[in-house]
Amino acid sequence: MHGEGGRHGWRGGRGLQRGQIARLIEPCLLILLRDRTAHGYDLIGALGRFGLDPELLDSGLVYRALREMEMAGWVTSDWQVGGAGPPRRVYSLAPAGEAALRAWREELSRTHDFLHRLLDDGIEK
Questions:
Q1: Deepest of 4, 16, 57, 105, by most Cβ within 10 A of its Cβ?
Q2: The pLDDT of residue 3
């Protein structure tokens, strides 16, 4: 999983929420690309599926994540030419992206368990 080195990419919220949102963009994008190929603009809009407001999301964060995941071999991209407008880069999930998504699932499952223990044993008492 990639870190953003201080780049939060979220214009809403403060503190932990900002960093957590940025970090969780990767698995969200991998899930969306598992369902279908898409270009960046469509992916930004589709992040609403996970409760992220595209209007509050820094689009640069999404494009940086896509570039990093492409360099890691998790996604591939091709230029879509034709139709109205300029060519657009279309992203697809690569086999290594499926493996990365499985790793994310394991990590998020551990985090989920930890957060439940934290809430049950500490914060909510």
A1: 57
A2: 41
| Coil/strand/helix, residue 57 | strand
Residue ranges per domain, the chain?
Answer: 16-123
Which phi and psi angles does 15 have, rounded to 5°?
Answer: 55, -130
Average pLDDT, the chain: 83
Residues 82, 27 contacting (CB under 8 angstroms): no
Q: What is the DSSP string of 70-108?
A: HHTTSEEEEEE--SSSS-EEEEEE-HHHHHHHHHHHHHH
Residues forming a β-bridge with 57: 10
**Which tens digits make up the pLDDT trace of 7-51?**
344 444 444 445 666 788 999 999 999 999 999 999 999 999 998
Nearest to 106 by CA among 9, 27, 28: 27
For residue 98 the two structure tokens come to 């499926």
What is the pTM for the complete model shown? 0.77
Mode of pairing for the β-strands spanning 38-39 and 88-93: antiparallel
Closest C-alpha to 79, from 67, 70, 91? 91
